[in-house]
């Protein structure tokens, strides 16, 4: 049985991070550059500074140097408030993706800005989710989003979207509003895809009718470290006594937990509900 304290092997996490780094770099050198977009977070700020320095001062600044310098404060926040190994792995992504972005060639894909915005945003979301599945981040505003989410228990990606839109207002003033507005499409597609793919900060309520309450509760406790409340009632059709277990878990845990419950009690009836908000104590596994 999977234990809630089990961590992914470090080697696997590093592999996921390297793949994510490659996707980030390829995305910038294809969709982003093809449509002159500004992706979210400090990557977008780095590209904004890079293009402004080139256009107004004739200075060509390396993307890697800009993104490294901008991530100093977020990295300190990560070490202090999120987790040391988590932050080190995130630093690997920042370093590798920065170098790959500078050294990989630009590749023309299409001049259709809508296609670049949508598919670039989706590709960016895949890279971010790989980082999150590796229990790390892509750095920059991701550190801030994760810190807020850990403190509040709610997804903060939409808050970061608002911040990114403010940055794009500056880009619109400097480089024209077409690039800024298409970049909002890029960031919206990325944000919504992340919310869909990554469920750690979403909560799911399970209502389980079972004749094996102790065994089912043991599964919930062992897999997720969450508690459950048992209600006793009567099935009107059968006239037999029934037990209802009420428990709230992370949406990322819900899928495998439901399968484990069904394996323990094949006759269990499970109602899965999306929880809008949770007020009170809720177990959250700390980042390492």
Model description:
The chain has eleven helices and four strands; from the N terminus they run H-H-H-H-H-H-H-H-H-E-H-E-E-H-E. With 288 residues, the protein is α+β, with helices and mostly antiparallel strands. Strands 2-3-1-4 form a four-stranded antiparallel beta sheet. The two termini are 22 Å apart. The relative contact order is 0.14. The model has no long low-confidence stretch (mean pLDDT 86).
Question: Which structural traits does this protein have?
Answer:
elongated, 4 strands, 11 helices, four-stranded antiparallel β-sheet, 288 residues, alpha+beta
Tell me briefly what this model is.
The protein is built from eleven helices and four strands; from the N terminus they run H-H-H-H-H-H-H-H-H-E-H-E-E-H-E. The chain has helices spanning 10-34, 41-57, 63-70, 72-82, 84-103, 113-133, 141-152, 157-175, 177-197, 213-224, 251-264, and strands at residues 203-210, 229-234, 241-250, 269-275.
Could you give the topology of this structure?
Blueprint: H1 10-34, H2 41-57, H3 63-70, H4 72-82, H5 84-103, H6 113-133, H7 141-152, H8 157-175, H9 177-197, E1 203-210, H10 213-224, E2 229-234, E3 241-250, H11 251-264, E4 269-275
Antiparallel strand pairs: 1-3, 1-4, 2-3
Helix pairs in contact: 1-5, 1-6, 2-3, 2-8, 3-5, 4-5, 4-7, 6-9, 8-9, 10-11
The CA-CA distance between the termini, in Å, is 22 Å
Question: What is the share of helical residues?
Answer: 55-70%
What class, by secondary structure content?
Answer: alpha+beta
Mean pLDDT: 86
Shape: elongated
Helical run tally? 11
What is the succession of H and E elements?
A: HHHHHHHHHEHEEHE
Strand content: 5-15%
